[in-house]
Amino acid sequence: MSVLRELSERLQRGQAKEVEALVQQALDEGETPQRILEDGLMQGMGVIGERFKANEVFVPEVLIAARAMHAGIAVLEPHLVSAGVKARGKVVLGTVKGDLHDIGKNLVRMMMEAKGLAVIDLGVDVSAERFVRAATEHDADIVACSALLTTTMTEMRHVVEAAQAQGLRGRVCIMVGGAPVTDAFREAIGADLYAPDASSAADAALAHCAGRAS
Amino acid sequence: MNGLERYLGTVAGRAVDDLARTPILMQFAAEFSGSDYGRFAADHCVLVEANVRCAEVFGIDQLSCISDPYRETHGFGGAVTFVADGPPRSTQPLADTKDLDTLAVPDPMGSARMLDRVRAVERYARDHAGTYSLLGWVEGPAAQAANLRGVITFMFDLMDDPEYAGALMDVCVETGIAFARAQVAAGADTIGIGDAIASQIDPRTYEALIQPREKRLVQAVRASGAFAKLHICGNITHLLPGIADLGVDIVDVDHMVDLAAVRAAVGERVVITGNLDPVSVVRNGTPASIASGVLDAYERAGNPYMVNAGCEIPAGTPAENLAALCRPLPYRA
Ligand code: B1M
Prior knowledge:
The complex is a heterodimer.
Chain A: H1 3-12, H2 16-28, H3 33-53, H4 59-82, E1 90-95, H5 103-114, E2 118-121, H6 128-138, E3 142-146, H7 155-165, E4 173-177, H8 183-189, E5 193-194, H9 198-213
Parallel strand pairs in A: 1-2, 1-3, 3-4, 4-5
Helix pairs in contact in A: 1-2, 1-3, 2-4, 3-4, 4-5, 5-9, 6-7
Chain B: H1 3-11, E1 20-21, H2 27-32, H3 37-42, H4 44-58, E2 62-64, H5 71-75, E3 80-83, E4 86-90, H6 112-128, E5 133-139, H7 141-149, H8 151-160, H9 162-186, E6 190-194, H10 203-223, E7 227-231, H11 240-244, E8 250-253, H12 259-266, E9 271-276, H13 278-283, H14 287-301, E10 305-309, H15 319-326
Parallel strand pairs in B: 1-10, 2-5, 5-6, 6-7, 7-8, 8-9, 9-10
Antiparallel strand pairs in B: 3-4
């Protein structure tokens, strides 16, 4: 089995130590940091994302896979920096005000990181003002809001309004998601992107950032 | 038949006049009775008054003590704060340490928030025994462990250190048993066990670590003379074999689960309640769509069955929608 394939498989099983060692081995064998990242780590995380969507794996398994990915990235990081590989975009993420559900939001973060995006995670119970302040501070491409309650998803409208008030609407894309959120709701509140699950959220965010870069 | 007779008849598998109705009320009841969720969770007098009013207005057959997940967590040393329009917030006593010895030892009759729930049962029993079923409530082992550690940290525990996760859940089960017994002594005929987080766990981990502890809790509840009811919100399809083996009397089923599959798994003895979608059907639907949803659910579940949404009746549900959910529907043999 090729080292990158084994790397992907160990990652899918959440074996962080083995992933670290395999990243080092791949580097020693002369693989480029970019290929290790994309064809080993991101590939493995992509498989986990799809299997989660299909109910073949559950949250704890995604969590340990994401941790293994981070372990691999930590080994790779200095090589990525010297090879000039940069984050593909910057996302400010959080669960909206009044809402404490964070499992889905954390999965979104992991999938986005697995796509090479830098994520600033503001946690739960995040006010519209905090989202907007963080977006300005970090010069983010995307503000990503998660909500699990029908009573709190309306907070997303405040995020759109606060971004408007700060003159950020042309610069920052507002993405919304979470179980009760729909594309029709996104449209009604004037947000830019909606994704039904964590993998699609990461794909949509990456596509947006790639579009901006080109 | 009054509410209690209808409820007991259903649990015993006997024919009843109408289907028993047991919707889960929290913020809705608080606001319907002119109060707010913060006071409902903080003060058993508000909780009791709100639930009694809803039972009388809507024709509900059970009075419940559910308010939020942090009664036991407070007993374990969590700092709980109340907010007006949402459930309370709590710190997680084991967020930064795995040391179980740092936990306070919860005493159902000493810890303020646990005692407050026992007082709710006492008040119901004083004024309504014999009329309504009285539902006490405890957190299940996984939910309580997640309350103490934080959900994500506990999920890592399950994967990395199953022995520790098991020991932590054992502590939670002991507290759950003591809390359940105190509520049964106060007059509860049924103890609900809420283990929401279990729906997010893979079947192997559930079977190995969580199910045996839920089972111990169920057995203790039943040994204390009460019925045991399991409530896991979310999709439990992958957990059905384990759930079928718990020995519960009643199982609440959320909207994404097929009731016929639950019936096939749990057999003819267990009461199924559910499972209209709380938001898209009960809150945002019409009385007509709710009525047909109840009929469909009954059709798929078969007897013994009680009317319920898949989970809590959401805040903002129009009163006529809850009335439609609770409209008497004749039992069919
Ligand atoms: C930015 O772009 C994006 C794009 C995609 C995005 C995105 C952002 N964010 C998420 N996604 C998407 O990607 C993810 C992965 O693919 C998906 O994320 P999800 O978050 O949907 O999915 C997760 C991976 C797994 N799912 C979950 O984590 C939620 C599971 C269920 C069981 C659930 C849980 C676990 C909890 N809960 Co809560 N809880 C329920 C849930 C029932 C269910 N639906 O299963 C739900 C969400 N809860 C509900 C309720 C009512 C409540 N809960 C409450 C509390 C809790 C717990 C603390 C016990 C716990 C949360 C623990 C935690 N730290 O997150 C309370 C609210 C607390 C608060 N203020 O937030 C309370 C109000 C109950 C109470 N009275 O105490 C219901 C909401 C109904 C509604 N629509 O309004 C509920 C659907 C249960 C039900 N069947 O009625 C997608 O939605």
